[in-house]
Specification:
With 510 residues, the chain is mainly α. The chain is built from 26 helices and six strands.
Length: 510
């Protein structure tokens, strides 16, 4: 096409569309799904190749304005997924539309409109349906604020149905009803606390995780038999240790107790089994049990975001990167706006030989969600993949430490950064080792970072001694030995294979 005939009203890609409407990429992706933002796709080019016509965007924005609707506020409204259906007590389930039949945008839009028409017929149902632990996490997150407003502004009719039991039914692609489970507390205030907690722990910050802990604990105090709250509490404990809020030795046992209680109350609760799988792998080093729990979780709910995400994390630590990426791809399709899932997927991708692509993903993620720490932590790890980038390693370490409020890691990063700038990479690792030894004095208090520093400095015997001590103490960090790029020189030594076997990880593929 001659240059003079090139259309000037086309915006190519999510970034250009986002800039035009004044929102970030993740928001406009959400608007397309929940608000019908007029986005088109190039035929045959895949889901990610999108464009939009400025005239259609202007019309959509103007229509939203005249309706008195704030697109961002409305994007937090209830998203009725076609994969599930529901009913209040005494109301028959509405057959769900199989996902395989919802491929084109018109069909999806029609299904969404159809579900919107159902909402007035079930007063109060939208509120309690959201308490299900089996819903995709993104659905629960996006409506948390809207739920709060509903609680305040609810009509007398809605208030009279404040806590009906909610029935969730799954259907096969042929429309056959597969199973039905009931969730939702009848105790006043419990559902609100549960939703607040879900919203808080998905923000993945030390402050939000503490709020989630309080919300789930208060929900359990009000209704000790509400299984989803115990499962969510278990997940929160596991995240608290990851985000430098609670020591492993305290967090993991509490996480296990909460998950086991959830399973005792409801053996069908997928999230509880997924949480047990995570704990079995990283804390108990019971690979067989972890695999069994994850498979149970996915059998109970094939659309469990948590199970696919955490199973993908386990496979990454086993060095099974292709299998991990398969699980994480599913998790991302189910919840495309999750920074945690995207970060874990980038780790598996980067370690499987695609570091450049992984780094681009993480950089985009940081620009869209600057307050999230996981992309910085993953970038710090990937910067040690050949060809190494020591400057970025310490910079990303510092950024992750700042966001996680880890004073210890900030001290290490500060010493490493200063040493690298003055004397280079070897000095950086010596500074890291010296700082760690000051923070953890004594021959019996070696840390994983000390082992990494010893390996980077070529002190292989010392590195193996450190790792052996950590394995003997059953330190959870040892489960990262296969994926850690800094330890790659140790793989040539037979002692590395012995160490891998001692912690229960699968043999290396060589």
């Amino acid at each position: 096409m001659p240059v003079s005939q090139v259309r000037k009203d086309i915006l190519n890609g999510w970034k250009e569309i986002g800039r035009y409407v004044g929102r970030d990429t993740r928001t406009v992706e959400r608007w397309e799904k929940l608000r019908g933002l007029p986005v088109r796709r190039v035929p045959g080019a895949g889901r990610a190749t999108v464009y939009a016509l400025i005239t259609e965007l202007d019309e959509w924005l103007e229509t939203s304005k005249h309706k008195g609707a704030d697109p961002e506020a409305n994007s937090r409204a209830v998203d009725f997924s076609p994969a599930m259906t529901f009913s209040a007590s005494g109301v028959e389930p509405v057959p769900a539309i199989p996902l395989t039949k919802l491929q084109s945008p018109p069909e999806i839009a029609g299904a969404t409109a159809e579900m919107r028409e159902l909402r007035p017929a079930f007063p109060g149902m939208a509120h309690t349906w959201l308490t299900s632990g089996r819903r995709p996490l993104i659905a629960r997150i996006t409506i948390a604020v809207a739920v709060g407003l509903l609680c305040v502004l609810a009509s007398p009719v809605i208030r009279s149905h404040a806590n009906p039991t909610i029935h969730l039914s799954r259907y096969s692609d042929s429309g056959e009803r597969m199973s039905a489970v009931s969730y939702g507390s009848r105790v006043s205030g419990v559902n609100e606390l549960y939703l607040q907690g879900i919203y808080a722990y998905e923000q993945r910050s030390p402050e939000s995780l503490q709020r989630a802990l309080d919300d789930f604990s208060n929900a359990i105090a009000k209704d000790p038999d509400y299984a989803p709250a115990y499962a969510a509490l278990s997940i929160t404990y596991s995240l608290l240790r990851e985000y430098s809020v609670m020591p492993d030795a305290e967090a993991y046992p509490k996480a296990r107790a909460a998950a086991e209680h959830a399973v005792a109350l409801d053996p069908r609760l997928s999230d509880a089994h997924a949480s047990l799988g995570f704990i079995d792998f990283f804390w108990s080093w019971d690979i067989v049990s972890a695999e069994r729990e994850f498979r149970t979780a996915l059998t109970l709910d094939p659309s469990s975001v948590l199970a696919h995400h955490w199973y993908g994390s386990m496979l990454t630590h086993e060095g099974k990167y292709d299998e991990a990426i398969e699980q994480l791809d599913i998790a991302e399709r189910l919840e495309p706006t999750s920074a945690a899932i995207l970060s874990t997927r980038a780790l598996a991708l980067g370690l499987s030989g695609h570091r450049g692509q992984a780094v681009d993903m993480l950089q985009n993620l940081i620009s869209e969600t600057p307050g999230v720490s996981s992309p910085h932590a993953i970038l710090s790890t990937l910067s040690r993949v050949e060809p190494e980038d020591p400057a970025r390693f310490v910079d990303e370490m510092r950024r992750a430490a700042e966001l996680r409020h880890s004073d210890e890691m900030l001290q290490v990063a500060s010493a490493a950064e200063s040493a690298y700038q003055s004397s280079g990479e070897s000095a950086m690792w010596r500074a890291i080792l010296a700082t760690e030894e000051q923070l953890h004095p004594g021959a019996s208090n070696r840390t994983f970072l000390m082992a990494e520093a010893e390996a980077a400095l070529g002190r292989y015997d010392a590195a193996f001694a450190d790792l052996g001590q950590l394995a003997q103490r059953r330190d959870p960090t040892v489960m990262g030995i296969i994926l850690d790029p800094t330890l790659s020189p140790l793989r040539r030594d037979r002692r590395f294979g012995q160490l891998v076997a001692s912690v229960g990880l699968p043999p290396l593929p060589y």
